[in-house]
Design a protein that fits this description.
The complex is a heterodimer. By secondary structure, chain A is mostly helical. Chain A has helices spanning 4-15, 23-35, 52-66, 71-82, 97-127, 132-155. In chain A, helix 2 (23-35) runs antiparallel to helix 3 (52-66). The longest helix of chain B is centred in the N-terminal third of the chain and has 24 residues, at 2-25. Classes of the chains: A mainly alpha, B alpha/beta.
């Protein structure tokens, strides 16, 4: 273990060469790398991508953070160059309206449909008020059917 | 009420089919440029041919094509003869040698001929990042005012030129009084 430990430390250092004086900046940097999407290898974020372009974007974000730019500034900076595509958190615009609110609209439609259907069925069942006459007939039929069934079972 | 049983799923199906059919035609790798209808971003980079000459955004007044290429890019090799043909036809093409080695790039132009009236040497990919380049080759159509009017991602093939790009070129070169 004592032999392994220094090895793993150097391995980590070789990957993570971006150092900040301010822990907040370190955190911002990691969040940015998670939330920015690599335009070259489209289903990876910048942190996961090994593409040359991902490294360029990483380096530029690092430089800007060190200059004191905020996380939001840097996202805007990248969107200005690569479009909304670059962020995994697309802003609400008329192009992304469906993306943001579409699911809620669908949910609302489902709820409305369910409520309307429920009401209709309640109305339907309340319309079927049975008169005492009908009730008696039903009971008589039930009785008859029940008896026949019993008889059938007896004869078996 | 009965028509809804068939009507609603049918409607949903038609709407989804229309969206998906449209999606089939889109190549997700062809992103629209965020720099469209904007001026070329400010830069100051050396020329590939002569390292002491500095090229800036002031020099990119079209009508011209700005072609992003590199020696490590196989598609650029495929595209090269078409660029030479276009240069012969009088299309002004500026090269942007993107993240490349100078000796390699010079040897490349020596071997395959040089269609560019000037070549910007962007060793670190700084101008590439400012332009929103995400892979070579890419070709930007820049008008007389230095505004980016179109970006073509991928090879400028004879077919692409005939189908759409020549019309875009005509629209910027007419307005620019070339």
């Amino acid at each position: 273990m004592a032999v392994l430990l220094p090895l793993s430390v150097t391995a980590y250092a070789a990957i993570d060469v971006y150092e900040f004086d301010d822990p907040q900046q370190t955190e911002d940097f990691h969040v940015l790398m998670q939330e920015l999407r690599c335009p070259k290898c489209q289903n990876q974020n910048i942190a996961d991508s090994n593409a040359g372009l991902a490294k360029d974007i990483k380096d530029r974000a690092y430089k800007l953070l060190r200059e004191g730019r905020s996380k939001e500034d840097i996202t805007a900076y990248m969107v200005e160059r690569y479009g909304d595509f670059i962020t995994y958190r697309p802003p609400v615009t008329k192009n992304t309206w469906v993306l943001w609110f579409g699911p809620f609209v669908l949910l609302l439609m489902v709820v409305v449909t369910l409520v309307v259907r429920k009401r209709a069925s309640v109305k339907l069942s309340s319309q079927h008020d049975v008169t005492t006459d009908q009730k008696q007939r039903v009971e008589a039929l039930l009785k008859q059917y029940g008896q026949q069934k019993d008889e059938k079972e007896d004869s078996k | 009420m009965k028509w809804m049983r068939f009507g609603i799923p049918l409607m949903l199906f038609v709407v989804m089919a229309a969206f998906l059919a449209k999606g089939l035609e889109n190549d997700p790798r062809h992103l629209p440029s965020a720099r469209l209808d904007q001026k070329v971003p400010a830069f100051s980079l050396p020329s590939l041919i002569d390292a002491t000459t500095i090229i800036t955004q002031q020099d990119l007044k079209g009508p011209m094509l700005l072609n992003v290429w590199a020696t490590w890019c196989p598609s650029c090799r495929v595209e090269h003869p078409m660029l030479i043909e276009l240069a012969k036809q009088g299309v002004n093409i500026i090269g942007l040698d993107y993240k490349d080695e100078r000796p390699d790039a010079l040897a490349y132009l020596q071997k395959f001929h040089n269609p560019y009236s000037a070549v910007i040497f962007d060793e670190k990919g700084d101008l590439g990042l400012d332009l929103g380049v995400y892979g070579a080759p890419e070709t930007y159509f820049i008008d007389a005012a230095g505004v980016i009017r179109h970006r073509h991602v991928g090879i400028v093939s004879e077919r692409a030129w005939k189908n759409s790009l020549s019309a875009i070129w005509a629209s910027i070169s007419d307005g620019g009084g070339a």
